[in-house]
UniProtKB/TrEMBL annotation:
Pfam families: Fer4_10. Residues 1-30, 31-61 form the 4Fe-4S ferredoxin-type domain. This is 4Fe-4S dicluster domain-containing protein. Keywords: 4Fe-4S, Iron, Iron-sulfur, Metal-binding. It comes from Actinomadura litoris.
Length: 114
């Protein structure tokens, strides 16, 4: 289940909002994705896999992590961001706007004024 959106890592590209099949995220007033409907998360890892900057963490649970769990602590998860992408062979996160990034949704969002 989605547990953490890292404000420090997020580039506000909205890719997670667009790829989530159950519409878990809303776009916050500051542009950051907000976990608005966590109970709708199916732990499909689509948001984590598609995040270009490894700013999301999906815990391997079918329900929310318990209070005080390390699965909700961004500092404790520092090495876990992007781990799913590495496990499935998608490589490391990408540098926003790099020539190697061909995701049209991401690159259009970086180039467009907000």
């Amino acid at each position: 289940m989605i547990e953490v959106v890292s404000a420090e890592r997020c580039v506000k590209c909205d890719v997670c909002v667009k790829v989530c099949p159950t519409d878990v995220f809303d776009r916050g007033a500051d542009g950051l994705p907000v976990i608005a409907r966590q109970s709708d998360c199916q732990s499909c890892f689509m948001c984590e896999a598609h995040c270009p900057t490894d700013a999301l963490y999906v815990a391997p649970f079918s329900g929310p992590a318990p209070d005080g769990s390390p699965h909700t602590d961004e500092a404790a998860l520092a090495d876990a961001f992007g781990e799913y992408r590495r496990i499935v062979g998608w490589g490391r996160g990408r540098t926003p706007g790099s020539r190697a990034d061909s995701n049209h949704i991401f690159t259009e969002r970086i180039r467009s004024p907000r």
